[in-house]
Amino acid sequence: MAYTQPVGTPGKPWGDSEKAQWLAQQSVQRSYADEVVAKLRNIDARFTLEQYGALPYDTARYPLYAAKSSNWQSDKPTILVTGGVHGYETSGVQGAIGFLQFGANAYLADFNFIVLPCISPWGYETINRWNPYALDPNRSFYPNSPAPESEQAMTYVAKQAAKLLAHFDLHETTDTDNTEFRPALADRDGTTHDNWNIPDGFYTVDDSNRPQDKFQAAVIASVANVTHIAPADEHGKIIGADVQQKGVIHYDKRKLFLCGGFTDAPYVTTTEVYPDSPKATPQQCIDAQIAAIQGGLGHLLSQR
């Protein structure tokens, strides 16, 4: 997210003019059509690609797609995978696509899948956490949401009338959280910004209202074969939250209106990859997202 100079008056929340100033700092830096849509058009025939909407900023440039199991069977449990709620978190988007390309086939006999690889394509192109309204889609998953990214995703999933067993929401924690996003958030809301420790490694966020310790542990164990797991800081925390077990913290996802909280799936995980680590390559970050899904699915199969 480009936030090259402060916007507004310190201590005073932004109005429309300040949001317009912030938006003027943003620019397209990569292609959603080339890096996302072109890949989705070449996914395995065992998935059907459906356009479920388009972003109002430019409906031709930002169509929204879901990949759904072609051989849908109502007696199978359904798995939801979401990526790119924060568009700048690259491995979440590419990990969802990679799972469709390379990881899903082994599980199609056991599960139905709904995969929304890039919920925020404007954010993907501008490498941004927010949308053009200076709204965070991942704090906007509630009825009548003002964020079209969140509202259209929720509407599509609800129309599937599927009983979801699990939801994998693929994210990253990056150095720009401290250098760009959190300063912008503080300015937007008229508050102050305090740096938090960016964890070096992968971790997950469970839902404090429906914790699944063994499920999260299976995700962590699978990812550990690909990249390193984030340690707790000197206070026993990751991004300010208590570590519940190795590499796992809890959030109240519904209270915060997070993507991971909008369904009733009993198994939910938000993955967090650290792409700025000197110990991880971009491909490892993508592979970690795929491994997270595979680890969780393996656990679900073991419970049958």
TrEMBL record:
Q: Which domain of life is it from?
A: Bacteria
The species this protein was found in = Alteromonas arenosi
Q: What is this protein called?
A: M14 family metallocarboxypeptidase
Q: Which family does it belong to?
A: Belongs to the peptidase M14 family.
Q: Which Pfam families match?
A: Peptidase_M14
| Domain Peptidase M14 intervals | 28-304
Extract the InterPro entries matched here: Peptidase_M14
Gene3D superfamilies reported in the protein's UniProt record:
Zn peptidases
Q: What does UniProt list as this organism's lineage?
A: Bacteria, Pseudomonadati, Pseudomonadota, Gammaproteobacteria, Alteromonadales
